[in-house]
Amino acid sequence: MIIKILTLFPKMLDSIFHHSILGRAQSKGSVAIEAVNIRDFSASKHNSVDDYPFGGGCGMVMTPQPIIDAHQAVLKNITSDEKIRTIYCTPKGKVFNQELARELSKEKALIFLCGHYEGVDQRVIDELVTDEISIGDYVLTGGELPAAVMIDSVVRLLPGVLSQEESYEDESFYNGLLEYPHYTRPREFRGNNVPDVLLSGDHAKIDEWRRCQSLKETWLKRPDLLEKKQLKKNEKKCLKKIQEALEKEEM
Ligand code: ADE
Predict the structure, then answer these.
(1) Fewest CB atoms within 10 Å of the CB: 77, 105, 245, 249?
(2) 136 Cα nearest atom in ligand 1
(3) Closest listed residue to residue 180, CA positions, set 153, 219, 215
């Protein structure tokens, strides 16, 4: 996959993409990520990239020319038969989630546009943006951190990026549930023991325990996820047991 990020602050992103799984994914050639400085494309005398908003008001707006030219230069270097998605990071966008990460991970290339100040001139959005995406209902100072968040979650889904031990199939949200709890050595820590079933060596039992714990975590922390999920017969049974046990604890 090719990922280009149009930004005024490329250095903000460089270190993030050279560490851990993202760094490894780039070394292996699964993804090539490049931050492109919008300012390098400014045609104005002082390389300016923003101006006062028409109609008044506070803050500055990013001007269209440097962004459109940067975008065109980036597009020229990507060969693809399909339309390349250009994502504008904005709190006004559709809220990002695992489903959207999975959808984006199927693309050959992605372009992220990071806004700053009061945002970008609307004509940029009208002309080249295919997706407006938010990472949550709060406002950040720019689109760089949201772009990094989205890129991290997309890249780890690319084939061959995670090793078998790191695979995402058991992770939260993969199957619409939160992940079960994990334990490692020591078996006993400050009087708290690892659940017996995990030491039993019975993999069928361990799988069942994990599925039930997953349902319990989801029921307690994100019951809204269960409303969207079609539970299998054994999952319904397990959830009922959990709910009854929790009710008893409350009494
Ligand atoms: N830019 C500023 N805030 C943002 C958010 N919450 N999501 C995406 N881009 C943003």
Answers:
(1) 249
(2) 6
(3) 215
